[in-house]
Write a structure and sequence with these properties.
Radius of gyration: 33 Å
Largest sheet: 7 strands, mixed
Strand content: 15-25%
Distance between the termini: 46 Å
Number of strands: 13
Shape: elongated
Helix content: 40-55%
Low-confidence stretches: 1-18, 352-360
Oligomer: single chain
Strand order of the largest sheet: 1-6-5-4-7-8-9
Order of helices and strands: HEHEHEHEHEHEHEHEHEHHEEEE
Length: 365
């Protein structure tokens, strides 16, 4: 398989590529442009109100240049007064005009300044707050999970790991699409918009401090480049990647992936199993849906199980992990369970929104 370079992948992404930046999840707020527009409209209304107040009492004002005050002069006076410029060419001369300046014009001037200056202060405060959150996030993030690609595979993968107890604050999503990052942050995950084949993008996701990395892009060649880059930045993280074609799986393993899942092959095998036995297909579908029905759990051997056989435990053991070997439950080399072993078991999870296999009718029933 011929792998395109970084520039080629960037061109393929097209308009979906955005500058690399970190976006933390937060509550939905009004867009800054809309906020500024609303404040400008409010300031304009204050200006218009002030001008009409002056025009209504125009007989109490004097224009040093031509005497009487017309509507244009009223707007001019309102503008220079509210902005505290104050050229002094139009001045209130009557007692009524001066009283209105004290009771009406001055409060309007203060309101006008609050609206405009408040917008600037709010923008600066928001930037400072966001910078503080980002620095705090970087300093506290450790042993997290990085998900490359927030499509169907990436979204399902992160939902599965979170169903096992992983906090959403410990998940960082990397995707070249700004819409995908917005969807990730809306669900409570931190997001980094950018091309994951580039080292600087992965560094923004703190890949060098991650415990596990899930690679699930749309293209197999992208997955290979991401795996190479991620392994170069983090030698100890567990990397799991997905590919569409089985022939590309060896390339990913050579690139540093610890486990490779062939998405098209796995779906095809599940389809074939469902054809041969709809009930078996339903059980397998339930097993891969973490958090309800039947779940596959990897757990350590407890002291009370040491010295027993795999079939003597309370849980349904399907495999025993000993060292770097995964042994079937009936493998005679297992003998007795050891304290350093790990068990792959099938347990009953607490039902949530999913229905357990035994409660669902078979196709055609």
């Amino acid at each position: 398989m011929k792998l395109p370079g970084h520039d080629a992948i960037a061109r393929q992404a097209g308009e979906h590529l955005v500058p690399s930046r970190v976006k933390l999840p937060r509550k939905a707020v009004e867009r800054p442009i809309r906020q500024v527009a609303k404040r400008l409209v409010m300031a304009l209304l204050v200006l218009v109100a002030t001008a009409f107040v002056v025009y209504a009492d125009r007989s109490g004002y004097r224009d040093n240049s031509d005497g009487p005050v017309d509507l244009l002069d009223a707007f001019y006076y309102a503008t220079v007064t509210l902005s505290t410029t104050g050229y002094g060419d139009i001045t209130p001369v009557s007692d009524g005009a001066r009283l209105i300046n004290i009771l009406v014009i001055t409060p309007l001037r203060v309101l006008f300044l609050i609206i405009l200056v408040g917008t600037t202060l709010e923008v600066l405060t928001e930037r400072t707050r966001e910078e503080w959150r980002l620095n705090r996030w970087r300093s506290t993030l450790r042993d997290h999970t990085v998900v490359i690609g927030f499509g169907t595979k990436g979204r399902s993968a992160v939902q599965t790991v979170c169903a096992t107890g992983l906090k959403k604050e410990q998940v960082v999503v990397v995707d070249p699409s700004s819409k995908a990052i917005e969807a990730a942050t809306a669900e409570g995950y931190a997001g980094v918009a950018g091309d994951a084949t580039r080292s600087e993008v992965l560094r923004r996701a703190e890949v060098h401090k991650a415990r596990q990395i899930i690679i699930a892009p749309q293209r197999d060649d992208t997955a290979v480049l991401v795996a190479l880059t991620a392994r170069q930045l983090n030698r100890s993280a567990k990397i799991v990647a997905a590919v569409r074609e089985e022939e590309n799986a060896p390339l990913l393993k050579q690139s540093g992936a610890d486990a490779v899942i062939t998405s098209s092959g796995a779906a095809g095998r599940l389809l074939g199993l469902s054809v041969l036995s709809p009930a078996a297909g339903m059980v397998m579908e339930d097993l891969i849906q973490q958090g309800s029905g039947l779940d596959i759990v990897d757990r350590p051997v407890v002291r009370s199980e040491v010295g027993r056989g795999p079939r003597d435990t309370e849980d349904l053991v399907v495999s025993v992990v000993r060292g770097h070997r995964v042994l079937g439950y009936d493998d005679p080399s297992i003998g007795k369970l050891q304290l350093t072993d790990r068990l792959i078991t099938i347990v009953r999870a607490t039902p949530t929104e999913h229905v357990a296999p035994h409660a669902r009718p078979l196709p055609g029933d």
